[in-house]
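Could someone model C2E with this protein?
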Amino acid sequence: MKMARIGYWESYNAAATDFWMSPEVASLYELQTPTNSIPTAAMRDRHPAESRDVLQAHYAVCWTEGRPFAVETKLLKADGAQLDCVVHGEPEFDSNGRVQRVFGVVRDVTPEASALRQLADSEQRLADFVSTASDWCWESGPDHRLLPYPKSLDGNSALQTVASGGKARWELSFAPEEQGSMAQHRADMEAHRPFRDFIYTSIGDDGSRISISTSGKPIFADDGTFLGYRGTASDITQLEVARALLDQRTRALEEAHQLGKIGTWNHRLETGRTVWSPELYQLLGLEPGAFEPTYENTTSYFLDDDAQRLLKLQGRVLRGSTTEAADIRIQHADGAPRDLAIICKAEISNGKIVGLIGTAQDVTDRKEAERRLEQLAYTDPLTGLANRALFKCKLAGLFEEPFSDDGHNALLLIDLDRFKEVNDSLGHSTGDSLLIHVAKILRQELDPQAFIARIGGDEFAVLTNSQCASADDPITLANRIIAKLSVPVELAEGEACIGATIGVAILPEHGATAEKASRNADLALYMAKEAGRGRAQLFEPIYAEAVDQKLDLGRRLRQAVETGGLTTHYQPQIDLKSGRVVGFEALLRWSHPERGPISPSEFIPIAESSGLIVDLGHWVLRDACKQMRAWLDAGLPPRCISVNVSPAQIWNGDFEAVVSAVLAETGLPAKLLCLELTENLFVDHTKQKVSTTLAALSKLGIQLALDDFGSGYSSLGYLTRLPFNCLKIDRTFVDGIATVPEKRKLLGGIIALSHGLGMCVVAEGAELAAEVDLLAAFDCDFVQGYVFSKPVAADQAPGVAAEIEREAVMMQARRAQLAACL
Ligand code: C2E
Ligand code: MG
Ligand code: MG
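Reply:
Sure, complex below.
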């Protein structure tokens, strides 16, 4: 009884307030008494209120009507636990058929009830799963017709057709392209074979579609009779749409890869295997089946050290989980080089690097175009030599590697002499032919390993290495080049006679950086030019400072020209007969920002050697003409303005046009302009250009004066051939005439000769009244000297001129008075 968790109870009176119960029941109710007689009220309290009343009602009916009962109820234990139990009651009748006793059992059914509850729970769970899953179960009979799905399924008409059953799958309306697979499916089912994931497309009456994936297994009776199939199915329409989209995108990507010549690869760390896409094989001209893309197999296809570079790149990607890109060169199976742009990134799964993935794009065409552009960017199109940009790179590159101890590199800067003159006189195409000729000579004279560049109009640079087989000492080499370049060249337009000046720097001795080396070679070139051109000069540090200063002065002077830091002073020229100021010589003045005023004798040669003189001369010409025009406009008497002209102004470019433009711009009459030229004009130049320019200037009505006569060659030959109006006798010649009789004689002769040639004479630098008297006695026309005035600023010049003229008038009056007295 105890094991069966069951106890017995009985009652002899409907109105009794006690029950008799067996010890098991008493223990169940935790109401033990010595007599096992338990108060009914205490028992009832052990049941929850709702079953308490039910029990009471059944118990009462059992007494009154003799009806047995069995009530399921809870039993509340003192510790709060609840037991499931069933209380049975049976009537016992006396001989009159009246109930004389009610007895029964109380059964603890807690384990059974809990097992039942668990069963109900798990059934419910299963039902929940099935009802919420998108899959459904199906059954078919021996004729393969589907049984109707017992519940309603959410979905379109295509799904409802399947769910309503009554047809074998192949009797449904399905996509025509699935004819073949459906026939195979039918064969499988008819052979009673199980199947998995069979996919078909059902089509509804309204044309709607559903993609279904289904699996099933045949069911047999114990005796082996085939009963049909049972299986599951799921709606994979969305999946199929996504798959179709994915397929479409994959195809599009493949096409893009084909078009863009992009191949992909991936490398698995775990297996150490690399897999290439078919496009990558195609890029290299290899057969997918016949080539295993291992590192060893591929290295021979890389050019230069690109295999190593790629390996290092992959190392970096693996270490840093970065994405890296590089351009590499490979050799296609057809032997031609190809350029590939590689992008490589780490493949990460669950936060761990599992491999590498990458793309390789054939960028040969783009790279070729870039190389061609680079070639154009680094080549001088005329001579085919390297240009300045490449020279700079090459020189910088030399300093990136340490220089070897034995041997040296030399940098030669070559400047052609008289090239501009040839260019101007014989034309630009001759100039071009000449440059091509120079390039040819340089190639001939230099070792094939020497680097030759044209770095400017007529400037060339050479980098040599003494370790070359035929290497000469750089100065010997430079002298040989000068000798070769100085040989007159026969060109279609005539004979061209040029020369060369070369500056040489030894590397790295004469410059620890590319900039210093090139600057020092430039300084050496400068020194060579200063020393008279047509020579080679090795860089010498002691001269560097002086040259440096000159170069600095040149730079500052250029700034002054550009920023208006120059002024013009004017020195009066006096007519000895009338005592009138007939003109002014315009003289440049420059105040150096640190050194203060600098004499033109110092800065004019610098301007001349740097080429700045052309701009400078233009500036002073305009300034002086403008000034004279302003004086005229202010009502001052017309006076001639003398402007100094450097030879380079006439040699280079169209000087006549420059002068005409200035006259037109300022409105100064041509006859009031006098250009002072020196004998240097006739040195070192084709005579033709000079004489045509002077003739043209003279034709414009401009006065021409030969300046500094007596300080140089003093050749009277020019005076007879060229249209000079005036001779200016140099200060050194005038100085001392009062004391040196020979000078006096010579002076008298020159003045007479000039007059004979129809020229007037200006004597420069008269400082003493005695000199003026002597010059007057020699019939000199004009005097310019400190004795009258130093050069003065523009605003003082008219006043100074007025003063000179007033004094002359007074002097003449005094002389007249004196004459009258005598
Ligand atoms: P220059 O053309 O022979 O000019 C005359 C020079 O003699 C001026 O020197 C002038 O100040 C100086 N002088 C005049 N009278 C006397 C005198 O009595 N005693 C002494 N001791 N000197 C006298 P400055 O201004 O120093 O010019 C020097 C030279 O610089 C000029 O000689 C000329 O060759 C050149 N120069 C000046 N300005 C220009 C210019 O605008 N263009 C060019 N190309 N050269 C210029
Ligand atoms: Mg002068
Ligand atoms: Mg002079």
